Amino acid sequence: MSSQDTSQIRLTRRATIVSALAASFVMGHAKGFPPVDLSAGETGRVIRIIDGDSFVMALKEGELAVRLSAIQAPRTRQRSDKAWPFSEEAKAGLKALIGGRTVRLSYGKTKRDRFGRAVAQVQTLTPEGQDDLWVQGEMIRLGLARVYSWRGETADMGALYALETIARDRQRGIWADEFYAVRAPDPDPLAQYVDSLQIVEGVITSVADVRGRVYLNFGSDYKTDFTIAIARKNVRAFEAIAPLTLTGARVRVRGWVEMINGPMIWMDHPGRLELLA
Hints:
277 residues, alpha+beta, 5-stranded mixed barrel
């Protein structure tokens, strides 16, 4: 493919993003936070977009870098050895949504990450100071990011997953690219995605508690089949979903695929596990 062809594809993608953003305000967008336990944070004007899930806002005391909690946009070249598909489109989309606007942060248990960035749910405000747009919800709805939480982050995960499902079903944004496809738990094809972040969907065939560590198995041979593992120190965080009762449940899990016997994803909090009907 020539550089001219690549440039044309990028222009087409960006035109699609602009059209989707314009349509979002005609058809309705993700207004307001769903009810979750959040504490009020800073309010300021967005002065710079870093990538599709982080930006810088101006405060009276200086600048504050912010990461959108509970979602993950495609990584740019600065954050990965190679830029992920749609990274520039996601950055452009976030800029279109919040660039130059006044936003308010709201915090869960985690307020700062290891880089010193604020980790927050973000709301744009109207000129009158009223709540306007739930930024995480809109990025997910437009297919410019996927749901991905870290332990300690607080969000209405059900609302985010519902918006993601609609975006994926309609192949919006990233969901039109095979790079972000939901994988089956078949161990051989899944093995090619070791050391990458993937979403895997399937039926749990058995569960096991081995010296306090919980395993959710997706096949008859735990030594070769795909498995979700929960370390003993994290099991208590899963009490609400009772993982040892999930035999036969269809689930969707997301995380980094490792090869331990067969392909495996470790989970340290339940926000990365969807229980499907």
